[in-house]
UniProtKB/TrEMBL annotation:
Protein species of origin: Casuarius casuarius (Southern cassowary)
Matching PANTHER family: THREONINE SYNTHASE-LIKE 1
Pathway: Amino-acid biosynthesis
Residue runs in coiled coils: none
Identification of the protein by name: THNS1 protein
Taxonomic classification: Eukaryota, Metazoa, Chordata, Craniata, Vertebrata
Limits of the Threonine synthase N-terminal domain: 238-312
One example of a Gene Ontology biological process annotation: amino acid biosynthetic process
Alphabetical list of Pfam families matching this protein: SKI, Thr_synth_N
GO molecular function terms listed in the Swiss-Prot or TrEMBL record: pyridoxal phosphate binding
A single cellular component GO annotation: cytoplasm
Lineage top rank: taxon: Eukaryota
Amino acid sequence: MFHAVQYRPLRLITQTTLPSMCLKLIFSRPVAFAQIWKSWFSSHSLIGNKNIILMGPPGAGKTTVGRIVGQKLDCPVIDVDDDVLETTWNMSVSEKLQDVGNEQFLEEEGKALLKISASGIVISLTGSNPMHAAAMEHVKKNGIVVYLDVPTAVIMRRLKLMKVDRIVGQGSGMSLKDILQFRKQFYKRWHDIRVLCGGEITAEAIAEKVLDAVKRYQNSELETFISTRSSRSGNCKQKDSAKYFSDVVTEGLAPDGGLFVPESGLPKLTAGEWQSLIEATYVERAQVILERCIHPADIPASTLGEIIGTAYGENFSCSKIAPVRHLTGNQFLLELFHGPTASFKDFALQMMPHIFAYCVPRSCNYLVLVATSGDTGSAVLDGFSRLHDTDKQRIAVMSFFPEDGVSQIQKSQMIGCQKENAWSVGVKSDFDFCQTAIKQIFTNSDYTGFLTVEYGTALAAANSINWARLLPQIVYHASAYLDLVHQDIIAFGSPVDVCIPTGNFGNILAALYAKMMGIPIRKCICASNENNVLTDFIRTGIYDLRGRRLIPTLSPAVDILKSSNLERYLHLIANGDGQLVTQLYNQLENQGHFQLQKDLLEKLQQDLVAGWCSEEDCLAAIHSVYSTTGYILDTHTAVAKVVADRLQDRTCPIIISSTAHYSKFAPAILRALRIAEIKQNPLSQLHLLSSYSPLPPVHWGLLETLKKNENEDHQICAADTSMLMSHIEALIQNHFM
């Protein structure tokens, strides 16, 4: 429990700045003046003329932490409750509240805060200050607002010990817990920095975290990105060539053909910080994690919060966003299909378009290109079509998919998701061609330069090669673990395994990143279908495409031979050796294979194990799980289930990523369950599934999209990069000119 502050360096500063205050004190209190002048200069190096403003609920420890921060910076401290309100009113805060009531109290409190005009000090706000907009705008102009984020359950315990059962703003019939939850929206609106404060952390430790967070806030130049094909002392070393989050979102692919990664790696949360998120909602967890990964100089915390709220609001049919469901034994399903297009791709692509729109300059138009093996196409089209109208005028998206390499329902869904700024193009080839062609287009400086000069349009990427696609996926892997803790399945710190159907290596890489950030994931199990190049690689260290042809399967989203995001993982385990990564990928491009050296393979196998699943076993798993549990797996989740059954050692829970809703693959489901003759029309397939009452309902968004757009068409392109470039130019002319 935090104790009240007995001493404060400064009682009240109103309507003055620090230097002028010092001039007033010099004649009457020369010793105090000397102390304050010294304090001002010693703290000036960290916060300059800014104030550190501590914000949080009652019981968060703002007063105690503020005093400690002030002592560490050797600068003055104001506690608004004691130094401003009680001094101004000549009565206690509780007496004032009883005298004027809730509404008038907030107004009077705000007026008092409006009188503060100081710089280079620490200010501890009251718990209700953030509810007065004008007052907060006033103090925020010259301050860095630090939110002491304490779990509500911890605050409730502290207030009980303090014998507080009522706080400002708590109306009749409203519980203490309700008003604490209500106030969170205001803290979310005003904070620049968040400091997570678990139940056991000391005030001294929180003060250190505050100072570290302020240093990070003031030093955005430290959070740079490099290419996987450059060394850590390479082309991003010079300040004028440094790449920041906004840059890598805009550019997508590095100029040398590599992928962008954070130069200093991902941040790591402490066990206490993770535990403080156990009671949090998915949206709250997302904001905390992404604030740590995205510097506020790129996207301010309040703006990031708005983006997350928009992404995971009404667009998802389940309030838990990514619920974890028990399947059987120690197996759990992470359901990632409750978004508008029924696949895990929605988690990134409901958010990434808004991040992109915020980060890119408004002086240029942007055409976002994406290659898809099925699910990404509809998700990216839906996501970018939800941008504000002004953004849709300057940002368009084009999705290339293998014309004969996706399910009929996936194709119909992509066609149905076309909007005024979003188009689909079928390519007479496979996904690997689509992905390679887009990479070639991005690295063709003559062509991209021509588009910029001739049409004022730049190209951007929305595949998982774009860093903004990967970050949101880290959240659901972390959230799944926290849900198991919340459900008392495991204690925090106990390990879990995860099993993920894997093609382009993005989803499983996000799980590995969650592990790096402190989530106790033991093994990541890579599940392949008959295109099992990754399984062979993880087992042997040899990535060999020689003589391999892509096999169309019932799980088309993982029908991939060249896994783009594997490059990021190899860069990670090679300790940032960009030259080695370049050598490996040049060899893959020129000779069709490469082999990891023994020490790297050993590192890889500490994180990863792998297996693959045949078509027959995939269908059998769908039938078996439905027969025993009544649950229907989609084909990709069935692949993961088969591999999990074979590879898990049953010493800890295993979380299987359920990456798509079963109704996206109706023919395979009908075949697996032996229900009826399969009809070719996608809408008929869904109606047949819907009519079979024992089955869970088909996905709401999928059925709606197909009903509305049954007769729409799309463009088809030959497997020729120059033809893709022609389609791109034609689209730019039609949309932007």
